[in-house]
Amino acid sequence: xxxQSNMNLIWAIIFIAGGFFLRFQINKRQFNRRNMAGxxxxxxxxxxxxxxxxxxxxxxxxxFLIIIGILIAISYFFATHK
Length: 82
Fold this sequence. Notes:
By secondary structure, the protein is mostly helical. It has one domain (2-80). The chain has helices at residues 2-32, 45-80. The mean pLDDT is 93. Keywords: Membrane, Transmembrane, Transmembrane helix. The chain crosses the membrane at residues 6-26, 60-79.
């Protein structure tokens, strides 16, 4: 049982770190697309639409990973501190 709960903590850390990394990378890409006036620049309307939709999905996945990681960490602490 001890190895399983240690593995849960490892998964929690991986999920939380992965979620923050994904959100950071999306925000970094969005920041780098901005020009001097602060407006995002895209090659075409289709490109803008596709990228923005993928970024929304990526942000949702990142938030989901963070929430799952926190829930796993909470369950780890409740399981080990009975």
